Amino acid sequence: MSENRPILTTRQGHPVRDNQSTRTVGERGPATLENYQFIEKITHFDRERIPERVVHARGAGAHGWFEAYGKIGDEPASKYTRARVLNETGVKTPMFVRFSTVAGAKESPETERDPRGFAVKFKTVEGNWDLVGNNLKVFFIRDAIKFPDMIHAFKPDPVTNRQEAWRFFDFVAQHPEAIHMVTWLKSPWGIPANYREMEGSGVNTYKLVNDKGEAVLCKFHWQPKQGVRNLTSAQASEIQAKDVGHATRDLYDNISAGNFPEWEFCVQIMPDGPNDHLSFDPLDDTKRWPEDQFPLLPVGRMVLDRVPDNFFAEVEQSAFGTGVLVDGIDFSDDKMLQGRTLSYSDTQRYRVGANYLQLPINAPQPGVKVYSNQRDGQMTYGVDGTGQNRHINYEPSTLGEGLAEAPKKTEYHQPVEGRLGRYQTSRTEDDYAQAGHRYRTFEDWEREDLIANLVADMKQCPEPIQLRMVWHFWHADEDYGRRVAEGAGIDLEKAKALPPLPGRAAPHKRLQAETYTE
Ligand code: HEM
């Protein structure tokens, strides 16, 4: 035993001379109320947990860095964006990344069929930029108002506390736009082998803005240098029988052994505007931008080279949000992105506390000084920078003191016009085209696994859900619908005879499915 071990203390700094026995009156007597050391220890323990994330509760994190190539395609990156993190070469921007599953609780198995979260915090010289993405490049829904219903259907039943396939498909059956994502999710792509060998994507559409205030629409993607590896359900079950945390283990073991995972950061860009010539809406996150028309342009690389020192302080308390952008990267009118942007900081003020941005894991890099007049609240750790006169915690000041606004930059002024209302996108034909294309372009074993998984799920669903799901699969691709129906013993003719969903356009332009490329 080491002679020089630090002495155990209370959190008030008092030495603890006996950590084995509660103070009692006599050997068998009652405990006393002034037993401060005991009370502090137990009551702090009682508060060790904070609410788990309402989604993406199970996760693992790692630190690393990002390096920009300074180019977008063959052009200097500055042609499209004034964000220094993408323009300046030779700079290593510190990063923190949290990978996760979505529907499971904090200690749920990492082998579950579920999208994987891919949340990235760039601690840039211009402040933080968070890109809160997933491994799959599309999502189930395209309007944020649907998110709570969707998550309720995917999470456990409120009565039995069990996740049920019928509840998942009951929701999905009402949403043709979800069929594309479901086709990915129920294939082996729904169970990445681990967090290192998977892609990442911002999923939602953003804008890049340059010095002249000109903007393009853009999507962000992470391509793993390790390659992509997925699991079938059978392979996943085998791993799960031995280890419910295999992906966390894989990430920590590889980084600790010096085998640092690396991803190339890519963008897809297109002019801003309605882009009416496209069969899909580029602001609809249930669609991919076909890569033959909008190639993935490498803009930099990320390397993860350090595991957290403490899971709770860094991974559990980390807070990512889609509102956290740097100058030169902007929001698009993607409705999901706009809804998400309210949700993240709102939940973090509840989950971690009003001052979650003072925690080292969430604060900007030390080189970036935080000067704001937002103050106080529970657990205030320090006061933000105050300028030369600490009495003036407001702005503007007639005395010309306190904090001053930053110099203006040329802003991108997007023209907006329209009638206030509740709308669905009118470009719905690709709800089926991209799903059908995906079905046809899977490798044989992936298609087999997709059908087997869907057949197993359909067998757990009541007939109305079965028929509507087969109707959707059949509209995506006739073979797709037929094979699910045959496998699960569902009447294909009865499914095909269903009317369109109430309030939804009839599926049309299925011919386009044959000509669609990616
Ligand atoms: C986490 C809301 C859609 C990716 C969360 C959290 C909320 C939330 C409340 C918990 C955050 C926390 O406690 O720190 C929403 C809403 C959505 C939406 C309202 C739709 C309107 C999406 C989409 C993606 C996504 C489309 C993928 C692009 C993530 C990730 C996390 C997360 C990766 C975990 C972040 C972390 O590791 O801490 N979301 N989300 N979400 N969401 Fe979403």
Automatic annotation (TrEMBL):
It comes from the Bacteria. InterPro entries: Catalase (IPR018028), Catalase_AS (IPR024708), Catalase_clade1/3 (IPR024711), Catalase_core (IPR011614), Catalase_immune_responsive (IPR010582), Catalase_sf (IPR020835). It is an enzyme of class 1 (oxidoreductase). One of its GO terms (cellular component) is cytoplasm. Residues 1-27, 498-518 are annotated as: Disordered. Its EC number is 1.11.1.6. GO terms for biological process: hydrogen peroxide catabolic process; response to hydrogen peroxide. The active site is at H56, N134. One of its GO terms (molecular function) is heme binding. Keywords: Heme, Hydrogen peroxide, Iron, Metal-binding, Oxidoreductase, Peroxidase. Decomposes hydrogen peroxide into water and oxygen; serves to protect cells from the toxic effects of hydrogen peroxide. PANTHER family: CATALASE, CATALASE-2. This is Catalase. It comes from Methylorubrum populi (strain ATCC BAA-705 / NCIMB 13946 / BJ001). The lineage of its organism: Bacteria, Pseudomonadati, Pseudomonadota, Alphaproteobacteria, Hyphomicrobiales.
